């Protein structure tokens, strides 16, 4: 589709032709010339822009979940955001990875193939330093990780995988399975060097250290769910249509669900000392006036106003009216 010119650009173009600054015949020749665009068969584009946008949304959610997880585990400032998403040959990805780094090799059942989560040494060692009680300073010693340090890193990333599963749950229910933990990318021979992969780069800051976490997703692993990554799939109304039998079954399941019901007869505040000195026969004054309706909670929401009483020698309440919006108070 050609670009649309503004009125000022059209006027400038007509003016240039009328003054002789631009030759109309030369413009026609340029228009008639065949335009050739170079195509690199080694960098086959297997993913559409729509699918790339969907992957971006999924991993933006993953970055937020990962930020919360690492902040809680490391007890320091953590910020993770999606920096870029590229599709490139697997060989090119391997060349871009540092010679010594932290690599998690994973299976993605029920999808086929494997994926890689590579953590830059600056970030990996800052995490390890925090786990061992340090300030989170980065130090490149990945090539000499001790057995204890290796096990700590494995355990940290094992728990982080649940956030990846949660981020992908809107597309596919996956269950990650860890295959290996490597520090040398040259040992990775999971797919053909020319196979197209998606590389999601997460810009990561931990304390004063910063680096990248790269997620490598081969096309062969995403192929079974690639249609689900298109906007057309999500906008398809048939996906949300339910048959009458399904609606009836859903209604029955909801109606038979159990909920907790509580009646609040009043509340009071006392000191810890008064609570410790309570004895049999002591009276606690409530903030509820006699004769005023009491609140009935469904779950934790104020739902009804009721009048207390008895029925068949049992304590009971009679519903008077619902509380609109669940925020009505007795004043």
TrEMBL record:
GO terms for biological process: bacterial-type flagellum-dependent swarming motility; positive chemotaxis. CDD domains: FliM. NCBIfam families: fliM_switch. It comes from Terrilactibacillus tamarindi. One of its GO terms (cellular component) is bacterial-type flagellum basal body. Belongs to the FliM family. PANTHER family: FLAGELLAR MOTOR SWITCH PROTEIN FLIM, YOP PROTEINS TRANSLOCATION PROTEIN Q. GO terms for molecular function: cytoskeletal motor activity. This is Flagellar motor switch protein FliM. Keywords: Bacterial flagellum, Cell membrane, Cell projection, Chemotaxis, Cilium, Flagellar rotation, Flagellum, Membrane. Coiled coil: none annotated. Its main location: other.
């Amino acid at each position: 589709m050609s670009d649309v010119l503004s009125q000022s650009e059209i006027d400038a173009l007509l003016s240039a032709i009328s003054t002789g600054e631009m030759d109309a015949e030369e413009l026609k020749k340029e228009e008639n010339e065949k335009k050739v665009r170079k195509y690199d068969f080694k960098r086959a584009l297997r993913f559409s822009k729509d699918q790339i946008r969907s992957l971006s949304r999924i991993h933006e959610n993953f970055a937020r979940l990962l930020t919360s997880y690492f902040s809680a585990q490391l007890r320091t400032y953590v910020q993770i955001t999606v920096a870029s998403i590229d599709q490139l040959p697997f060989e090119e990805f391997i060349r871009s990875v540092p010679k010594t780094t932290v690599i998690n090799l994973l299976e993605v059942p029920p999808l086929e193939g494997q994926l890689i989560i590579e953590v830059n040494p600056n970030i990996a060692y800052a995490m390890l330093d925090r786990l061992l009680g340090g300030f989170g300073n980065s130090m490149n010693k990945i090539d000499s990780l001790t057995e204890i340090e290796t096990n700590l890193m494995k355990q940290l990333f094992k728990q982080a995988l649940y956030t990846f599963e949660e981020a992908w749950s809107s597309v596919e229910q996956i269950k990650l399975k860890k295959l290996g933990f490597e520090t040398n990318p040259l040992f990775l021979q999971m797919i053909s060097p020319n196979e197209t992969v998606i590389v999601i780069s997460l810009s990561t800051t931990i304390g004063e250290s910063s680096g990248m976490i790269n997620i490598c997703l081969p096309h062969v692993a995403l192929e079974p769910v690639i249609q689900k990554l298109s906007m057309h799939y999500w906008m398809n109304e048939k996906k949300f249509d339910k048959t009458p039998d399904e609606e009836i079954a859903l209604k029955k399941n909801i109606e038979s669900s159990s909920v907790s019901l509580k009646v609040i007869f009043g509340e009071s505040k006392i000191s810890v000392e008064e609570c410790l000195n309570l004895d049999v026969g002591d009276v606690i004054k409530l903030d509820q006036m006699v004769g005023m309706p009491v609140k009935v909670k469904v779950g934790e929401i104020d739902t009804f106003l009721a009048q207390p009483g008895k029925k068949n020698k049992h304590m009971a309440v009679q519903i008077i009216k619902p509380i609109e919006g669940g925020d009505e108070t007795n004043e």
